[in-house]
Every structure is written in structure tokens, then in C-alpha cells.
Amino acid sequence: MADVTISPVEAGDAGEILTLQRAAYVTEAQLYGDPFLPALTQTYQELRAELAEGFALKATCDTRIIGVGRARQDGPVWHIGRLTIAPDAQGQGIGTRLLTELERSAPAGVESFALFTGHLSVANIRLYERLGYREERRETLRPGVDLVHLAKHAGR
To answer: Where is the N-acetyltransferase domain (predicted)?
Structure first.
């Protein structure tokens, strides 16, 4: 893949990010047998509001957004969410780069990073564990779907 640039999300990126999010989460929906995952049902307006309230980075190749990750601070915790990579760009280290940059972007006072994924998303869990995250707990979302909560000390 050509050069990938990581930069802050801009307000005009919302439409392309929503398209990327839907494309990337189709495989998750198939994995869990649930076409109504929040990432697939989120509206354009909801996404714009979320992006305006939080912090987000995008990975671009030429002019195309191929990845995005979001974060928000809650006291000493930097919550990372919706780390999303275009299906044709997965497995090329873009998720690792985005996650690393999201961690570096955490404000002063952040003591830990936290994120979650579904229990069947073994590639995601493997990535997070490789980057130093450890499982803290599991939460049943609905029968057959558990959320795996992982955390990592910020080490500042």
C-alpha cells in the first residue's frame, strides 16, 4: 500500500467515515449474526455529533480514508473505540499505527487506556494483547455475545 498518513479527523470526513464504518463492520455483523450492531445503525447525524464531542484520528492513503479510531477521556482513563479499518486494507499494520497514535494523543493525566471488542473477534483481541492490553473482564451484551474489556497502563 502507498504511504499512509495519520491525521486528525475533520468535520467534512463524517460521510466517508460512516461509509468506511459500515463496510468494515459487515464482517462483525456476520460473525455475530447481528445486522443491527451499533456501528451499522449509527446515523450520519449521530456520527457527526460523536466526532465533534470526542477525539478521532484517520489513516489516509492518497485521498481515501482507510482507517479511523476514536477516543474520549473519562477521568484518568482514555477510552479508545471504533478502531475501524477498510476491509481491503486490513492486516497491513494500519490498526496498530492508529491505536499507537491514539495512545500518544492522550491528554496529560491519563493513567490507562481502555477498549473493548466482541469475544468472537479473535484477531482484534490478538492485536490488542500484542500491543500490551490485558483482559480485565467480560460483559454479556446479549445471549451469545460477550464484550471483552481490555486495558493497558499508560506508562507515562
So the answer is: 4-152
